[in-house]
């Protein structure tokens, strides 16, 4: 019944408004005030899902979803998740389900090899990987490990002096993780980037900031470098940044949440060149790697640093296998004790696609993004704001196109950058309210850009072409009546 | 195919050795060294699951699993999880899938009302609830909220003075969360409990410790009280503890991870009497509430305290609904940004069981635990170490039974408490290695006890009776040849 329901959902998902059109509070009005006293049949509940839940979904699996970064699903990932839900084991330590731990150590090595991560990040070297829920958790774990390692050298009373570095394009998760870990909020540095470096973090800016902090008596702790930033998919230069960090004995984490997956293709691998100088590396397999939410892969060179910070050994969890030190107990590699059997779905995806088809899957998206970029470039009213990396295109209506309209309409008025931002904001809103497609935005150096992220499992060229037509139609409407 | 596989699994699970019998490293030998280049059919992967994964599972869903606390599954929970995996939406903010947010606010209120939580913890009052992965995350969020609230009053440089309180029976998750949040490791107080209070935290001991800390210039921050501790299901007296904490302006969190679920039964509700004095309350619906892993419900009186610490508002996530402040954005109530649509499975469980059957489910387990307790009590060689709370029995072979054996066998030697511990350890190991049942242990005031936790979805009286026979058989064997 549920399988049929989901099959119908995927058949029809393309027809639904991508962005849900409900108003805040809609659901409260549809559901009873409290839990029923007596059981209700699954059929009744499923009816309510159709009637009340589906209209309130923003359809992330629609091929017309081009917002944020995608959260891809696949039959293999779904089946793996079903099995893991069915077994419902809690593999916090090896003994609590050896297969859950061992399969995880195996698949993170498989994936690490596909990425050509240095041996030092793999169990087959002296490192290792772990599957967590999200990058937020992964980064928190690494900051805590770095923090404790540093404080063990300089004394716990110096927590207040530790500084975390990132760029102003870095995901907000890093700042949040630093704050949770007790890093003083004033000691988070979001270093300015600019169009000159395509919004990549400049090693010189990093060094300058570090020097300033050291002079002020602070202690550089942690650098998060990003491969594929959220606003524009910018790529920080890992090799040079790691070299700077090394001078100051800092921990470097590489956040490749979105773009890391693509690096299994030889043509994208150069973007993580220099990763050998980092301490940890993560990507979200639920983003562009078909595993369904959630599955973040984190590799570290020195698992003992994680374990020192995150291990607990209460008597009620003690067991011979742990005492023997022959096994991995993943509870000591993460924030939480309980953990789902996530490796099963990643294993299903790796095997049922194989390296060849996984590469094709991502290359196909990159090709479609290039197609979209080409369409935008042909329309002189628009500009591509930053070079397209991976499968994301950042574009906007040009201020000049707005000025021209104003002039054509015989009206007066200068079009400022702020006016252009406002026009692009309106354009995006009108596109999204149509329900035909869903895109989101970013602001870089004060410029409002529309992000077009290709990556849905079901997306085809025709969806991309239609999406561009939708953009043009809405742009026409906005331009025809435009006044600054 | 997968459904048939799982149906067979549940049919046969009773016959498998509960505790997996594999040796460390077994799986590496069964699987290839790297990801296949070409796709493999699902049938082949599923064959490998049967052959290589199932033997490496410790079967948490077996009716013969009496270890730790259970992680219950149900058809309703499974179907809800399938739907949420199928939709695969990421409801970090309201706009990203309104139904995911709104259903969550509704079900946490439903469950809160079933627990008769004060209105102040519910959205229908001024509080609210959130579904997170595990108690570890929930406690970390509350410690961070309490920390930032306190530091905003006394200055961020005083982080080093903050103290977190719990009992020596409190789950290790609390100490770990405090450490992650940057609380100085020396400022975690695990206050001693004893058999006199059945291992509940004494309000007098708490007050004495707080006074000492205040005199030393430290700042009391946070108390975690537990209803149903992991070692012995002990119950901290919430009303009195909250009164002490209130005197010092501390945040009180109630960890009812295991036993909270049972409090939907009027006869168990008194165990959370006094919760109105706490700031936050959590239980794991994946433990005793049939939702499958993972689903921790956290309620707070003052959501703004959480939000102040955990909110982020990067430009690329900005939207009109958020700006209107008419909606809940759950990303600001938790560690992570991305989040699974967990409310769906909890909603399925609540409706497909109804209040009546949920209560019966738990009462039935409590009844079976009493049955087991009765069987143990009848055998004079054993003792029930602490009064049985909820559905967990703590028992051991008595030192006197060991002495008697020694005497009967005509041998010499005193039986110390340590000898008794060693004998009980051996008993448990021999029981678990048989594969017939799986139980775990705890140590309280130096006494090794065997924990028998009833709570598997499929457990019936016959399994409990058999489990006791298994214990007796293995005890007979150990006693027959016993020497200290």
Automatic annotation (TrEMBL), chains A, B:
Keywords: Decarboxylase, Lyase, Pyridoxal phosphate. One of its GO terms (molecular function) is pyridoxal phosphate binding. One of its GO terms (cellular component) is cytoplasm. The keyword Lyase applies. Its cofactor is pyridoxal 5'-phosphate. The modification N6-(pyridoxal phosphate)lysine is found at residue 287. It holds the Pfam family Pyridoxal_deC. This is Tyrosine decarboxylase. It comes from the Eukaryota. Belongs to the group II decarboxylase family. The lineage of its organism: Eukaryota, Viridiplantae, Streptophyta, Embryophyta, Tracheophyta. GO terms for biological process: amino acid metabolic process; carboxylic acid metabolic process.
């Amino acid at each position: 019944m549920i399988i049929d329901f989901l099959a119908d959902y995927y058949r029809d998902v393309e027809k639904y408004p991508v962005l849900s059109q409900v108003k805040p509070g809609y659901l409260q009005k549809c559901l009873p005030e409290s839990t029923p006293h007596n059981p209700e049949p699954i059929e009744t509940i499923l009816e309510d899902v159709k009637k009340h839940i589906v209209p309130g979904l923003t359809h992330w699996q629609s091929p017309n979803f081009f917002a944020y970064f995608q959260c891809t699903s696949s039959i293999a990932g779904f089946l793996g998740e079903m099995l893991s839900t069915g077994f419902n084991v809690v593999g916090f330590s090896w003994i609590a389900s050896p297969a859950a731990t061992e399969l995880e150590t195996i698949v993170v090595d498989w994936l690490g090899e596909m990425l050509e991560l240095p041996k030092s990040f793999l169990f087959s070297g002296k490192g290792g990987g772990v599957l967590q829920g999200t990058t937020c958790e992964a980064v928190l774990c690494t900051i805590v490990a770095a923090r404790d390692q540093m404080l063990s050298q300089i004394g716990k009373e110096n927590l207040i002096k530790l500084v975390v570095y990132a760029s102003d394009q870095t995901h907000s998760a890093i700042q949040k993780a630093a704050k949770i870990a007790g890093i003083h909020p004033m000691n988070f540095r979001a270093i300015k980037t600019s169009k000159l470096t395509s919004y990549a973090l400049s090693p010189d800016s990093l060094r300058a900031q570090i020097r300033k902090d050291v002079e002020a008596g602070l202690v550089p702790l942690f650098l998060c470098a990003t491969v594929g930033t959220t606003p524009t998919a910018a790529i920080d230069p890992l090799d040079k940044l790691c070299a700077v960090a090394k001078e100051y004995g800092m921990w470097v984490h590489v956040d490749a949440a979105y773009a890391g997956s693509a690096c299994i293709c030889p043509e994208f691998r150069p973007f993580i060149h220099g990763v050998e100088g980092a301490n940890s590396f993560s990507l979200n397999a639920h983003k562009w790697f078909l595993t369904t939410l959630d599955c973040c892969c984190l590799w570290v060179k020195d698992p003992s640093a994680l374990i020192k910070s995150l291990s607990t050994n209460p008597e009620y969890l003690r067991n011979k296998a742990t005492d023997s030190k022959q096994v991995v107990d993943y509870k000591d590699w993460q924030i939480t004790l309980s953990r789902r059997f996530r490796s099963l779905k990643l294993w299903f995806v790796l095997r049922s696609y194989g390296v060849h088809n996984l590469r094709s899957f991502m290359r196909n998206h990159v090709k479609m993004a290039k197609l979209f970029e080409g369409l935008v470039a042909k329309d002189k009213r628009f500009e591509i704001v930053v070079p397209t990396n991976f499968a994301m295109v950042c574009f906007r209506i040009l201020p000049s196109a707005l000025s021209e309209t104003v002039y054509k309409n015989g009206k007066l008025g200068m079009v400022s950058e702020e006016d252009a931002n406002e026009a692009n904001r309106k354009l995006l809103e009108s596109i999204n309210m149509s329900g035909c497609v869903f895109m989101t935005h970013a602001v870089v150096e004060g410029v409002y850009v529309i992000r077009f992220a290709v990556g849905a499992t079901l997306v085809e060229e025709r969806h991309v072409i239609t999406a561009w037509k939708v953009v043009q139609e809405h742009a026409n409407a906005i331009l025809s009546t435009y006044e600054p």
